[in-house]
Amino acid sequence: MTDDHSRPAEAEPVLPPRPRSMDPQEIGFTPQRPVGWLAPLLLLSTGLRALLAILFGAYLDKRELQNSLDGEWFDHSATADGEMWLDYVADLGDGFHATYSVAWLLAQPHLEIDGASLPRGRLLLMGGDQVYPLASGDGYENRMKGPYRAALPEPPAGGPRPTLFALPGNHDWYDGLTAFLRLFARRKDGHIGGWRTQQRRSYFAVKLPGDWWLFAMDEQFGAYIDDPQLLYFEKAAKHVGPQDRIILMTPSPKWVKAAADPKEYDATDYFIRTILAPTGANVRVLVSGDLHHYARYSGPDRQLITCGGGGAYLLATHQLPDKLTVPPEETLTRSASRSREYALQTRFPSAADSRRMSWGVFRRVPARNPGFATMLGIIHTLTMLAMAGAASQGGNIQRLFTIPLGLMVVIILAGTVLFAQPPGAAFANHARHWLFGLGHGFAQIGLAILGTWVWLQLPAHDWPWPGPLVVAAVIYGPIIGFLSTQLCALYLLIAGQFRVNVNELFAGQGIEDHKSFLRLHIAADGSLTIHPIGIDKICRKWKADPAGAPDTSWLNPDAPLVPHRIEPPIQLT
């Protein structure tokens, strides 16, 4: 066991001057733009990293090595008044404005929301994907650590120092947890701004006041739970009794994903059955990020909460099922827990707002991803030149099967099929992904045929070489690139209605608004109240506060940043 007062007092450091601007030289990091998820090089590199992590992740799995690290659980149950406030945030390390908007709110001593004053959390729980798109030291520094240090530069004056615990998500895993462990599980200099870091592994158990416990399990891409982790939690669970209540943090809301692929929930159910159930304690809350919205399912025994609104692009909510059966009745696990039904209670944004924002794909995809439009323009221009060349050759067979044209057709079809059928697609849905991918590919080929016909009507195609190539690159390429992007946007809008490429439909738009986090309160009587906090509009303009106190934010919003309750407080006893 490691308690809340286990570290010796640190000498007061000499504080550097507070920043006077957002100059990276003054704030110590470079604010980042939101990730352009359809950028060609990013699509390629992220896809390869994800594939390598899935194929070889077991060989790079540092969880086995964590067995040599400190394996104690943490005791934060002793408070002066028997109460505790906690904050939960996930999916946060993306563009600066969205990430810092949430960090700034989390760092404030109190939030005034709907007439209630909610104090800052004594614990800050990060639920996964603390950096995008790939884990690295610079990525964490610029997209997560820097913004959170700027929000709470020093420990609060006159009060206990808040503690930060972080659970890795799939993006934290892409380097095998190397950068994650260096940042969150280091013994020396263990703090991020005013928050101290205490964990020694990528998973943790924390005893809370009022007979509550927090367990945070680390699944490597949902594959399995390693033996050192099971032994760690078995040791912690020996201190849990039938009178206790449990909050379980997971890297991904497997209860939602299991609706399409029943095996997704198997590891979570195994953990509950083998580690938590024997204690007799009640698992009252499951909470996760990974899906970038807020959604709560309620059942007779527990609340299932997804809250991934810490900074990453918004994800649709109108595709969420109205009811879930957890564990799924289709699971092949012979000793699975008894299935229970959970009903969708609340989502943020609303289903109507989510559908409305889907239509923004035509405007936002080309604006947010100019490299994607350029790539499509190049592919279509090369395809048009191949088609025009084939049309000027001999017989029909030779025209249709010239090597350049055949190569471009294969590239288009392969690209659209791979785009529609990511590696994580459930097996039962593969046919649907293939059909949509091929349909999108043939639509793009049809556009290429139309573009070739128009090209052949123009005098430029008969000009001496390299005149046609110059005209194609300067005029035809940008026009066909825009049209091809609009066709792709139409595909995403239609495919999204059938739960294909829903993530890409919203990732391509990069919507930064509609953020969310949780503020939880354990009262002296042991009751737990969950306050889901939403932010309709993030702040995009900040002003430095060089004269502020050492523990106040370096940068403050130029216009009021207004949080609100997503739904009434959720009370559990």
Question: What features would you describe in this structure?
Answer:
Strand 8 and strand 9 (195-197) form a beta hairpin. 36% of the residues lie in helices and 18% in strands. The protein has 573 residues and is α/β, with parallel strands linked by helices. Residues 6-10 have low confidence and may be disordered. The chain contains 16 helices and 23 strands. A ten-stranded mixed sheet has the order 1-2-10-11-12-13-15-14-17-16. Strands 3, 6, 7, 8, 9, 18, 19, 22 and 23 form a nine-stranded mixed sheet that branches.
In short:
The two termini are 26 Å apart. By secondary structure, this protein is of the alpha/beta class. It has helices at residues 24-27, 40-56, 96-107, 137-151, 178-184, 227-237, 254-257, 266-276, 351-358, 361-368, 370-391, 396-400, 403-420, 430-457, 467-496, 502-507, and strands at 2-3, 74-75, 84-89, 110-113, 116-119, 123-126, 163-166, 191-192, 195-197, 204-208, 212-216, 245-250, 282-288, 294-298, 303-307, 323-326, 340-348, 515-522, 528-535, 542-544, 555-557, 563-565, 570-572.
What layout of secondary structure does this protein have?
Elements: E1 2-3, H1 24-27, H2 40-56, E2 74-75, E3 84-89, H3 96-107, E4 110-113, E5 116-119, E6 123-126, H4 137-151, E7 163-166, H5 178-184, E8 191-192, E9 195-197, E10 204-208, E11 212-216, H6 227-237, E12 245-250, H7 254-257, H8 266-276, E13 282-288, E14 294-298, E15 303-307, E16 323-326, E17 340-348, H9 351-358, H10 361-368, H11 370-391, H12 396-400, H13 403-420, H14 430-457, H15 467-496, H16 502-507, E18 515-522, E19 528-535, E20 542-544, E21 555-557, E22 563-565, E23 570-572
Parallel strand pairs: 1-2, 2-10, 3-6, 6-7, 7-9, 11-12, 12-13, 13-15
Antiparallel strand pairs: 3-18, 4-5, 8-9, 10-11, 14-15, 14-17, 16-17, 18-19, 19-22, 19-23, 20-21
